[in-house]
TrEMBL record:
Keywords: ATP synthesis, Cell membrane, CF(1), Hydrogen ion transport, Ion transport, Membrane, Transport. This is ATP synthase subunit delta. NCBIfam families: ATP_synt_delta, PRK13430.1. It is a peripheral membrane protein. Pfam families: OSCP (PF00213). It is found in: Cell membrane; Membrane. Belongs to the ATPase delta chain family. It comes from Gryllotalpicola koreensis. Transmembrane segments: none annotated.
Length: 264
């Protein structure tokens, strides 16, 4: 990610935060639609992401094109995005999509864990090769893939999670579905000012064990911790923890592997 895009994303996030509770699920779906629209129209995308054009001109263009067609919060985010400099024209699509995910995360009720639901969707996809193929196929019609999502998730997860997954399969932009789901999880956690940790253990961890681990990781990363928990008997014992690119592996299986390498 280029430095211009990082600065642009910060501006978009600030504008989204200013919308407060008005940036709800409906606004998120508008932002997703706008991202897909820019993705399908090279002319429009280049016009709003043109680095040689004045920011005010691009803001005015967006106002003329979308005023009255989308909600005020969605228009505010789009206008801010249009007035930024992006490292690549296509980065504005990523920015609007991210804003949509963040709008869902910031407006969701506290009792809803979108991150957990996305993780379970990812597990379902990973366990079914045919399902994964159906959702990642470049040849399949996007509407057909969205239909698969609706049939798979109807009544099983929240509308917020369905909206995110629908967007990810409708506009993959070269990403695999599992990669997209992990990105969405990390974005949701970041919006909640947390970091996402995937904890793999040989047996289910108790609430007390998770609380102790949460305390250790929160001290290390200076943020709240959101957990994914995976049970893998092949570890034999111990834990493997992944936080972003960091891996903390204290599993017995890894220790035994290290011993074998040393003996060899």
């Amino acid at each position: 990610m280029g430095s211009a895009t990082r600065e642009a994303l910060t501006a978009v996030r600030d504008t989204l935060a200013q919308q407060g509770g008005a940036a709800d699920l409906g606004v998120a779906e508008e932002l997703f639609s706008l991202a897909r629209l820019l993705g399908s129209s090279v002319q429009l995308r280049n016009a709003v992401a043109d680095p040689s054009a004045e920011a005010a001109e691009k803001g005015a263009l967006v106002e003329r094109a979308f005023s009255g067609k989308v909600s005020a919060p969605a228009l505010a985010v789009l206008s801010t995005a249009a007035q930024q400099r992006w490292s690549e024209p296509g980065d504005i699509i990523d920015g609007l999509e991210e804003a949509g995910v963040r709008a869902i995360a910031q407006s969701a009720p506290g009792s809803l864990s979108i991150s957990d639901e996305l993780f379970e969707v990812g597990r379902a996809v990973a366990s079914d090769a045919q399902l994964e193929l159906a959702l990642r196929s470049k040849l399949a019609d996007p509407a057909a893939k969205v239909g698969v999502v609706d049939r798979l998730l109807a009544g099983k997860v929240s509308g917020q999670t369905v909206a995110i997954v629908r967007q990810l399969v409708a506009d993959p932009r070269g990403r695999g579905i599992r990669e997209s789901l992990r990105w969405a999880q990390q974005t949701v956690a970041d919006q909640k000012q947390a970091v996402l940790a995937t904890v793999t253990s040989a047996q289910p961890l108790s609430a007390a064990q998770l609380d102790r681990l949460r305390g250790v990781l929160a001290k290390r990363y200076d943020k709240a911790i959101a957990f994914n928990t995976v049970v893998d008997p092949q570890l034999i014992g111990g834990l493997r923890v992944r936080v972003g690119d960091d891996v903390i592996d204290s599993s017995i299986a890894t220790r035994l592997s290290d011993v074998r390498l040393q003996l060899a």
